[in-house]
Amino acid sequence: MGRRLGQHFLHSRTVLDALARHAQIVPGEPLLEVGPGAGALTARLLEAGARVTAVEVDPLLAQALRERWEGHPHLRVVQADILKADLSPQALFGAEAPYGVVANLPYYLSTPLLFRFVRSRRWYRRLLLMVQQEVGERLVALPEQGKVYGALSIAAHHAFEMRLVMSVPPGAFRPPPKVHSAVVSFVPRPARLEPELEARYLEHVKRLFTARRKHMIGTLRRERPPWPPEALARVSPELGDRRAEALHPDEHLRIFQMLACP
């Protein structure tokens, strides 16, 4: 079932040890593991002293994890869809303190889950995520990287300080995927917009990149609901004939604030 759900199980001891090391685990700290699969990374996290809540969508894998670590005081297995699960610290760990996230993300849910992590970043101290190499490059991209730069890049830079930690070859997995993977470290940034306004900003950026090659001011004029004429007049001199793909993440935020916060 794991392969049907897009999972490739990590088995390389070298990579598992590196992930545990880069996670910088403090004994006793709470960690969320997404998609633990057969539990290879789970074992390393427990050995390092973490208190792990593992969220696994596959009921057979979740049951196997429970049986393998039955009675372990530092492991809780939750059988749930991570895109729908309650990710608050209270729900996962019974406490309000922020927690860490370590995960080998199935490729098919990387982008929607990353946007969810952006929206709920107040709950995390840090994240260490393994994603498809292409997704990792998109996350950290800036305009000078060309077409890999997009809405996901802007959302990620808005919410996190990031760095590419390592590349992982297909042979580190069973079955091996057809592409390389990348491990990315994330540290949440302080919120710069109120939650409702931030949600609007993220949707705004997504819409801009559906027409990334068009002049941005023209795209803004066609947005629905429409921006007030006076708001468009404020940003028009700064934008000129620039396209969305040419603006740095901080520029996108400043333009949005000029539009939405007169």
What does it look like?
By secondary structure, the chain is an alpha/beta fold. It contains eleven helices and nine strands. The model has no long low-confidence stretch (mean pLDDT 93). It has a seven-stranded mixed β-sheet with strand order 4-3-2-5-6-9-7. The chain has a two-stranded antiparallel sheet with strand order 1-8. It is 39% helix and 20% strand. The radius of gyration is 20 Å and the shape is elongated. It folds into two domains: 9-188, 3-Layer(aba) Sandwich (Rossmann fold), CATH 3.40.50.150; 195-260, Helicase, Ruva Protein, domain 3 (Orthogonal Bundle), CATH 1.10.8.
Task: List its salient traits.
262 residues; alpha/beta; Rossmann fold; Helicase, Ruva Protein, domain 3; 2 domains; seven-stranded mixed sheet; two-stranded antiparallel ribbon
Classified in CATH, the superfamily of the largest domain is Vaccinia Virus protein VP39
Give, in spatial order, the strands making up the sheet with the most strands.
Answer: 4-3-2-5-6-9-7
CATH architecture of the largest domain: 3-Layer(aba) Sandwich
* Largest sheet composition: 7 strands, mixed
Overall number of domains: 2
- Shape, per Cα inertia axes: elongated
Structural category is: alpha/beta
**End-to-end separation:** 52 Å
Number of helices: 11
CATH domain class of the largest domain: Alpha Beta
Q: Please name the CATH topology of the largest domain.
A: Rossmann fold
Radius of gyration: 20 Å
Strand segment tally = 9
Order of helices and strands: EHEHEHEHEHEHHEEEHHHH
Helix proportion range: 25-40%
Strand content: 15-25%
